[in-house]
Amino acid sequence: MGLALLAGTAQQAPPPSALASAPAVAPGRIQASGLAVLLPSGAATSSDGAATPSDGSGGPPASGPESPDCSKLKCVALTMDDGPVPQTAKLLKLLRKEHAHATFFVVGMNAKRHPAIVRQMVADGNAVGNHSWDHPQFWKVSKKKIRQELARTDKLLKKLTGSRPMLVRAPFGEVDARVRAITKSRGQVLVQWSVDPVDWRDRNPKLVTKRILKQARRNSIILSHDIRPTTRKAYAGIIRGLKARGFTLVTVPELLGVHAKPGHLYFHG
Prior knowledge:
This protein is of the alpha/beta class.
């Protein structure tokens, strides 16, 4: 399956994430999203929390024997940013009922408040990604601060789940050369989205559902925010609508497979 890589050139920037309104992007920067899966329990980590996968590959773990084969299936990945919140538990229940999986890019401070929900995400077969500790504007902070944000969230997620996130989604989807270099050094992968229903701005369940169903294509990565009540209200229609159109809902690691490279930016599978 082909992987969309960022080859050092900026692509059209999507709208910001949901926690706040993003400022204008400075020249030479792009807005991007990175996503995190969990390393195998056998992976080692350095003193700053950077991963050293046991197989030395630096990429995501291989899909399990029962994972969907996205080279044959019409796969899409539904991703959810900024949580968890208490109501995320109802969303997990919906995913279980629909036999679907998603990727949750969690904010560390929210994961600390709701550890049982994070554990349930993983227990249900969903992927959990690092979306920073408290959602700062990476383009306004130092490289040290970026590393601290990622390392603190990594440490918590490893404590809660037994594994360290390897994929990262930057706050507001903001990625520049510094973020790419830092994630590469930590063995982590950045992933952008290809479908943005702008649910952080337009809090209308019917409109959000319509946009996702209209824009979804095979191998799409779909952005959404489980912190928004209107988005959570839309999820049943989104999931059932995608399935009715023949899509298989998978995690981002399942969509990208084993060839994703640390420091690279992926827009779709």
